[in-house]
Amino acid sequence: MMDVLADTNVVVYVEDDRDPWKQRQAMGLWRTLTARPGTFVSSQVVSESASTALRLWRDPLKVDRFIAKLENSATVVPVMPSTVRLAIDGCARFGFSFYDAQVWASAREWGASVVLSEDFPDGLVADGVRFADPFAPGFDLEALLA
Amino acid sequence: MARMVRKQVYIDAEHDLMLKQQVAQTGRTESQLIRDAIELLYDSEAARARRMKAAEDMIAIAESMAGVAEANGIIGPAWPGRAAHYEPPRGMPKSK
């Protein structure tokens, strides 16, 4: 079974209705991912999703409920000092910005072989972690996970 | 489900050998293989149903907030990438 780490933009497009196509894509993706085990988000993704939802909705109660449901629909992996050190290595080796590198480091550290994100070059493979843009034309989750 | 935790466990030497053979054959880490085994044995239909229910609830909350971002005067992409998220360009108001 292939483990997948969903990046912040996937969750943010669930939150944001101003791009209806991306919101539909993100909601469909989340339904599919949560129907299988092995879907991760990192604590960084949870934090960034919360801060973005607060900015969009300005409703702390709703954001809190949303994040609680996010936590229960996937496995949340923590960002630890070892993750930070791996991220520093990722900056040096792959030229990632630090916080992008931390997403890669979480996937690397917890064994996710795929990161779903539009923030990285589609198809890039870094130390066995493959990045796939779920909003790119022709994206096929089934084929990716096969 | 939810958070990943670090756990130190003792296993038989024979199981350790089996695990190492599987690592060599599959390219997956020992942690992944242990999680696979747990999920294979115990990821029940109930656990799957709980995850899916949480996802549906999460989506329903987002749907209930339709139009709110626009009403709040939010302009521009909600997720402009991490560089802009952590360090908005000069002249751009920081989120409240």
Output the keywords.
heterodimer; A: 146 residues; alpha/beta; 2 domains; six-stranded mixed β-sheet; 7 helices; 58% helix; 13% strand; globular; B: 96 residues; mainly alpha
Summary of the model, kept short:
Chain A is α/β, with parallel strands linked by helices. Chain A folds into two domains: 69 residues, no CATH class; 61 residues, no CATH class. Chain A is built from seven helices and six strands, in the order βααβααβααβββα.
Structure explained in plain terms:
The complex is a heterodimer of chains A (146) and B (96). With 146 residues, chain A is α/β, with parallel strands linked by helices. Chain A has two domains: 8-76, no CATH class; 79-139, no CATH class. In chain A, 58% of the residues lie in helices and 13% in strands. In chain A, strands 3-2-1-4-6-5 form a six-stranded mixed beta sheet, sandwiched between helices. In chain A, a hairpin with a 2-residue loop joins β5 and β6. In chain A, α1 crosses α2 (20-34). The model of chain A has no long low-confidence stretch (mean pLDDT 95). Chain B is an all-alpha fold and 96 residues long. Chain B is 58% helix and 0% strand. Chain B has five helices and no strands. The mean pLDDT of chain B is 84. The interface between A and B is large, with 49 and 44 residues.
List the helices and strands and how they pair.
The complex is a heterodimer of chains A (146) and B (96).
Chain A lengths: L3 E3 L1 H8 L4 H15 L4 E4 H15 L2 H14 L1 E3 L3 H14 L3 H13 L3 E3 L8 E2 L2 E4 L8 H5 L1
Helix pairs in contact in A: 1-2, 1-3, 3-4, 5-6
Chain B lengths: L12 H14 L3 H13 L2 H20 L3 H4 L10 H5 L10
